[in-house]
Here is the input.
Amino acid sequence: MMLKNVVFQTFISNRFSKSTLKVIAVIAVLVFTNCSTANEEEKPKATDPVEEKQTNAKYSVTFEINWNKNDFPVDYPSGAHFSSIVGWSHKTTSTFMKVGTFASKGIKDVAETGSTVEIKKEIEEKISNKEGKNFFKGSGLGSGVGKIEIEVDTDYPSISLITMIAPSPDWYVGIVNINLHENEKFISERTLDGLVYDAGTDDGLTFRAANKETDPQQKIFLLTAPPLGDGKTVAKKFCTVKIKKL
Here is the structure.
């Protein structure tokens, strides 16, 4: 074998000039490199794991209502309380409960008496029409603090939740059409001011005013007048709503 190599090298040396041999050597190196690269490209490459997009999420929603005689002394009633938190998850385009629309029979009942029978029927009908996903009802707030667990998905990412202010003519507090899915992700948490609404169904101006149906019915509006408001707004500290992903 060694003799053959010597003979071959002697043959090459005699056959080609030094410059030619250099060119041949360079070509050989390039060919070898290209072959190695090709072999590397043929090997399967590891791919980064693809994160699956979450299609639904569960949340804990806490209402903290700070209605007390010191902060809201005007006509503060004895026996102040609230009804059960009630609401639903729905499309972002829903106008149910929205300011500037007429309160349904169900919203009227919640605002005036705290009853959730009719609003449950209304929401279930909307759900059957593909306007929403789930109906929610929590326990009564009692001292002003209440918690409810809700679920949303990418098709129905918004929530609306309300509770009656009692005693009152037709006032309630809540959050309306809050979208929990932003930038293709479900939010982790959010703290909001619970707003105070007038259902537009009773003319009473004080907490214990006698029932007097509004005729014609007015559209839902944000309450600003006394005794809860100052003529411009209701203080933000009246209600805080905390939303946290589970």
